[in-house]
Amino acid sequence: MAAQPGPPDDTSPGTDDKQRQLDAVRVDLTGSELTTDQGVRVDHTDDALKAGERGPTLLEDFHAREKLTRFDHERIPERVVHARGAGAYGYFQPYDDRLVPYTVAEFLADPSVRTPVFVRFSTVAGSRGSADTVRDVRGFATKFYTQQGNYDLVGNNIPVFFIQDGIKFPDLVHALKPEPHNEIPQAQAAHDTFWDFVGQQPETLHMVMWLISDRALPRSYRMMQGFGVHTFRLVNAEGKGTFVKFHWTPVLGTHSLVWDEAQKIAGKDPDYNRRDLWDAIERGHHPEYELGVQLVAEEDEFAFDFDLLDATKIIPEEVVPVQPVGRLTLNRNPDNFFAETEQVAFHTANLVPGIDFTNDPLLQFRNFSYLDTQLIRLGGPNFPQIPVNSPVVPVTNNQRDGYHQHLIHKGRTSYSENALSDGYPEIAGPGPDVFSHYQEKVEGHKIRRRSNSFLDFTSQATLFWNSMSEPERKHIVAAFQFELGRVTDRSVRATVVDRLNHVDHELAVLVARGIGGPEPPAAVVDNHGRSSPALSQLSTAMESAATRQVAVLVADGVDGAGVSRLVAWLREHQVVPELLAPSDGTVHTVEGDDLTVDRAITTMASVLYDGVVVPCGPDSVRALADNGYAMHFIAEAYKHHKPVAAFGTGVDLLDQPWVSASLARDGAGVVVDQGVVTTPVAGEDLATEFAEALRAELARHRAWERPTDAVPA
């Protein structure tokens, strides 16, 4: 990744403007008195006005009527898709001016400009009440409050989509949502109608491979990639266009949960991802993402074996490298979820000078659909006046009236052109800050037909499969077996297996075996053998353990000195340790002190942590050994390939038949084997070598080489 730019100028245009704008509408009720919506102070709000203590309620109680009416109408329709989300404010800053030859979009090309942003992450299929960790696509939408107007990069954590033409979008969502006859299942693809749709629409195969992979189970929004999905255009000062694909890459690396974890977290903490984002920002561990671009000259539009306008295709990074151009930092949580995260309105057609569309048929439909949706959700055409949606530059036009108009427009003319108001607002003259649509020649017959260049539905699905590591392949096969195993119609299962046989014969055979269906007898097409190493998550950054959360299991008699040394070292390196004990409160250390614990172990679970440590202390170790919950905690973390560490007598707790790793016994060294970190040393002598080895294992995320078949379920 490119080096981060130096500290930005805090007086950068736009940054302070947006803050002042939000401050102006932020309400602090500290020290205030209760009033009605009209500002009338009230002396009682616990009883409605009645005719006598036990008499009927009176219609004239305007305060009660207003209070109940507001309550009745305080919910707005949830989004049809991307209903469950979490958001944060931050800023974006380019690294340098390398994009100046390609675009007049100042926020992308001027390294002195720091642009305020609001980012919303989301799941796609489930309702607002569903869990965070379901197998699903994740939204990654960014609103840039630029000095040229608002720009929305409305993307996902997967670089392709299910369909090629937006006319199929209602069919896709209807098939993916709960089935209409019984409203089951919630936030899942594992049912008949979705897989029936996949079987009937082979263009979905590439996206389905991503959906069934670990990419659909992100460890955190902070460790999740984002993509613009479509091919867009950058436009320079001369009006010349360049095709562009947008990529967000998390500085912490791209990491995922495993399926067993995801299901358990949905029960233990359904708010897992949104809580993780909120807590990280509150701790000062600000999430960072690098913006990268793939640039393709217009004369090279047809230089590939796929169509750049096809949203079911990627440009492999080995063919067109991703150039890092800037960094996004999220540094502030919203003050009110509804007012900001729920009411933020993104739209793919919110463009600024220097960025334009292509003729991608899916993008063209999105440009219509998003605005139409916001009009319904947010009560009319004035939703851009909601503070989280409003630009930092003045809005001056003749679009007035409508529901929830907050502005008071002066003057007698509301049309253009006019003479009575001296022609104002007047048309802007030509210039880099004025939007001008990219000019291209368009001609052809009016037809309903797909281009032949869109008809390859399998080669990139095969590319994705070929690019996966062995653990990732195992997870894909297991996920297909789970998903299709929940499909009740055997013919739907068979159709999907037949489709997979066009992707890879071995994949289709393994899936068929797992669901008890007939195996395809032979490959339909030969696997082309090409791969793209960048598609595997095992190629991601694995240098940093910052913000990883580690459970330290303690009980009475624990080695307080050793725990204190370890906790201090971890915090110094931005790892987040939490002390878990059989009960909340404090434990007594072997030194005779009281050690405050963070939580009772029974309120948490190993799936909520990135690793686990068992400290020294014979009495503490015996207490944990007799605690079934604690032993399950350790075994489950081991089963999920997470780092497991112990020092001193804590090593004895890992001496289990299901631990295949070597354990440190004698001497003062540190042993690291299959993600298990141990040392016989404890107390004040606990070496930083032990903590550093644990940090390295946390950074690598999982010990995939570890066999876990013998681990108790």
From TrEMBL:
Gene3D superfamilies reported in the protein's UniProt record:
1.20.1370.20, 3.40.50.880, Catalase core domain
Name the UniProt record assigns to this protein: Catalase
Q: Which Pfam families match?
A: Catalase, Catalase-rel, Catalase_C
Q: Which GO terms label this protein's molecular function in UniProt?
A: catalase activity; heme binding; metal ion binding
Cross-linked sites for 3'-histidyl-3-tyrosine (His-Tyr): H347-Y370
Q: Which reaction does it catalyse?
A: 2 H2O2 = O2 + 2 H2O
Asked whether the keyword Transit peptide is assigned, the reply is no
In the record, biological process GO terms are: hydrogen peroxide catabolic process; response to oxidative stress
| CDD domains linked | GATase1_catalase (cd03132)
Its annotated function is as follows: Decomposes hydrogen peroxide into water and oxygen; serves to protect cells from the toxic effects of hydrogen peroxide.
Task: Output compositional bias ranges, type Pro residues.
Answer: 1-10
In residue numbers, the region (Disordered) covers 1-23
Which keywords does this Swiss-Prot/TrEMBL entry list? Heme, Hydrogen peroxide, Iron, Metal-binding, Oxidoreductase, Peroxidase
What does the record give as the active site?
H82, N156
Family indicated by similarity: Belongs to the catalase family. HPII subfamily.
Domain annotation Catalase core: ranges: 35-424
